[in-house]
């Protein structure tokens, strides 16, 4: 154990006004995929592909949050969090991805936000958590520039409906997963395995973020950020080949997103790593200025550290490789704790991520940890989750003490839910969901976190939801 893991956190370890929250996403909890005019998303279609999802499951019903949202907001209030991060389903608002607006979808989110406000819970809205309208995928998806422009239109529609009652806006959740897991690895929707197309998707996602940010800036008082999943990539061994593999992995997962967003530059090793599969023709003059517009905050999702080892390329011909075929594989070091999903449990990786960001990007905006959590089989006495949260909060406190400006932390997730390609077997919730009956049962971690918040956020809802943060 590290010193952070062994040391109990004293009151005052987190700054005044620190935001404590929990998080979900639309497709993972809402269900009701055919209700009130919602159109199909790429996940609705991908879940119908044989073998794509464990046990052939889908998000058709999920946690039925679309009908049980009041019950779920009551659980947040009981937990004692002062903020809730959720996503709006693009196809629930614009069923064809553009054009016709479905007012019933917008009304659902207005009711949800009003209930959160009534309980002194600050809403953090994520505009895109992977559920691209299928109509846009049929026209090229994130491979094409038009989707970035349609995303900006969608952002403006949602801000027009919620901008009078929502201050915090997150454009994208984890563009790495959308671009690489979805367009290179094929394990997420839309299930493609491409080289140039996946890298174009990554670029257009960032461009969509920048274009949407421009639209959101047109409304006074809104604070705009983006959420990235970040994992430090470290060599699995002492060999130079492992060090080189770790650098390529760092590029794939981290720097191809952070450098354009925070440094207004493309990573210097992009051409070396990907030059055989793309000519980067999707880049245009002026894109970096749009992508790198100042952020009010940066969302960071952290789960584990990547230990990278050199590995043979899957495709011998460099020109035929996917963007994920980089001659590297991830390994779990011997003796490292693992979660119920086999992921390494290394709280020091969160500290490493945050201090790396602060060193690499002068003028870094304030950070919110927008996801941090532990997957298991759903047991109610979830001691592994309690240990994970405790140790990562200690590492987070260390990063704050070392000068990193972190303003809040969101636990993933409030509820057990549809966990993408893993279906319903992988459970991250503080609250157990019986999918047959939709009964909610708080787990031991729920009660532990509630007690933790009473000690570390004792000033009530005004402190828990945070004071207005300054912009950069």
TrEMBL record:
Keyword Nucleotide-binding attached: no
Any one Gene Ontology BP term: cellulose catabolic process
GO molecular function annotations of the record: beta-glucosidase activity
UniProt xrefs under InterPro entries: GH, GH_1_N_CS, Glyco_hydro_1, Glyco_hydro_1_beta-glucosidase
Its EC number(s): 3.2.1.21
Catalytic residue list: 174, 371
Binding site for substrate: 28, 129, 173, 303, 412, 419-420
Annotated SUPFAM superfamilies: (Trans)glycosidases
GO cellular component: cytosol
Catalysed reaction, written as an equation: Hydrolysis of terminal, non-reducing beta-D-glucosyl residues with release of beta-D-glucose
Keywords on record: Carbohydrate metabolism, Cellulose degradation, Glycosidase, Hydrolase, Polysaccharide degradation
Broad EC category: hydrolase
Isomerase recorded as keyword: no
Family: Belongs to the glycosyl hydrolase 1 family.
Record's protein name: Beta-glucosidase
Species, as recorded: Thermobispora bispora (strain ATCC 19993 / DSM 43833 / CBS 139.67 / JCM 10125 / KCTC 9307 / NBRC 14880 / R51)
């Amino acid at each position: 154990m590290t010193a952070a893991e062994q040391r109990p956190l004293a009151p005052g370890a987190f700054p005044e006004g620190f935001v404590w929250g929990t998080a979900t996403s639309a497709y993972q909890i809402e269900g009701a995929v055919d209700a009130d005019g919602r159109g199909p998303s790429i996940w609705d279609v991908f879940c119908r592909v044989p073998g794509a999802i464990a046990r052939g499951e889908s998000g058709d019903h999920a946690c039925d949050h679309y009908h049980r949202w009041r019950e779920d907001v009551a659980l947040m209030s009981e937990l004692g969090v002062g903020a809730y991060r959720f996503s709006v389903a693009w196809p629930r608002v614009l069923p064809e991805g553009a054009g016709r607006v479905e007012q019933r979808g917008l009304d659902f989110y207005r009711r949800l936000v009003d209930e959160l406000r009534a309980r002194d819970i600050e809403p953090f809205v994520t505009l895109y958590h992977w559920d691209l309208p299928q109509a846009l995928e049929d026209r090229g998806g994130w491979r094409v520039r038009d989707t970035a422009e349609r995303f900006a239109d969608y952002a403006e529609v949602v801000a027009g409906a919620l901008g009078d009652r929502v201050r915090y806006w997150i454009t994208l959740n984890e563009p790495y997963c959308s671009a690489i897991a979805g367009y290179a690895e094929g394990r997420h929707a839309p299930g493609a395995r491409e080289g140039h197309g996946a890298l174009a998707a990554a670029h257009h996602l960032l461009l969509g973020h920048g274009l949407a940010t421009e639209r959101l800036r047109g409304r006074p008082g809104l604070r705009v950020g983006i959420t990235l999943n970040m994992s430090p990539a470290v060599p699995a061994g002492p060999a130079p080949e492992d060090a080189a593999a770790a650098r390529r992995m760092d590029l794939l997962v981290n720097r191809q997103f952070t450098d354009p967003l925070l440094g207004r530059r493309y990573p210097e090793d992009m051409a070396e790593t990907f030059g055989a599969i793309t000519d980067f023709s999707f880049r245009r003059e002026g894109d970096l200025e749009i992508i790198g517009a100042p952020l009010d905050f940066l969302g960071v999702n952290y789960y584990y550290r990547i230990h990278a080892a050199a590995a043979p390329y899957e495709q011998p011909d460099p020109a035929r490789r996917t963007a994920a075929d980089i001659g590297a594989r991830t390994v779990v070091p011997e003796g490292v704790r693992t979660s119920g999903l086999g992921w390494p449990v290394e709280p020091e990786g969160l500290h490493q991520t945050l201090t790396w960001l602060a060193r690499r990007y002068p003028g870094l905006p304030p950070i919110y940890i927008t996801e941090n959590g532990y997957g298991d089989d759903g047991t109610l006495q979830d001691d592994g989750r309690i240990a994970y949260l405790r140790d990562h909060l200690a590492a987070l406190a260390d990063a704050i003490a070392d000068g990193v400006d972190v303003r809040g932390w969101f636990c993933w997730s409030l509820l057990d839910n549809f966990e993408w390609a893993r279906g319903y077997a992988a459970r991250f919730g503080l609250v157990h969901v019986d999918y047959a009956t939709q009964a909610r049962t708080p787990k031991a971690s729920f009660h532990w976190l509630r007690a933790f918040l009473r000690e570390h956020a004792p000033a009530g809802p005004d402190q828990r939801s945070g004071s207005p943060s300054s912009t950069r």
